[in-house]
Amino acid sequence: MVGDRHDLSAQAYQGGGRGIDPHLMSSLRDTVLGDFRPDLTLYLDLPPSVGLQRARARGELDRIEQEALPFFERTRAR
């Protein structure tokens, strides 16, 4: 299976971007996923400003893409 999201994106967006307690995020992950973990994770990184530029160029923004730059900077730092 190939997926473009997993618990790592939730940890970044909710934990980093929204400041939710990392221990709560880990507890939720363990409750929902149990022992399931991906065999391989690829992390593609680019500056948040570039990502937002690309999203805006596509047209209508989704709920996450409507966040301000500091949200994505916190997310990236996570």
Explain the layout of strands and helices.
Elements: H1 7-17, H2 22-33, H3 48-58, H4 69-77
Helix pairs in contact: 1-2, 1-4
Structural features:
78 residues, mainly alpha, 4 helices, Thymidylate_kin-like_dom, dTMP kinase activity, P-loop_NTPase, transferase, EC 2.7.4.9
Model description:
One of its GO terms (molecular function) is dTMP kinase activity. The chain has four helices and no strands. The chain is mostly helical and about 80 residues long. The chain has one domain. Helix 1 packs antiparallel against helix 2 and helix 1 (about 5-15) crosses helix 4.
Q: Unreliable stretches, pLDDT < 50, 5 or more residues?
A: none
Task: Provide the residue-averaged pLDDT.
Answer: 90
The Cα radius of gyration reads 14 Å
Basic shape: globular
Summarize the amount of helix as a percent range. 55-70%
For the biggest sheet, the summary is:
none
Distance between the first and last residues' Cα: 25 Å
Number of helices: 4
Computed structural class: mainly alpha
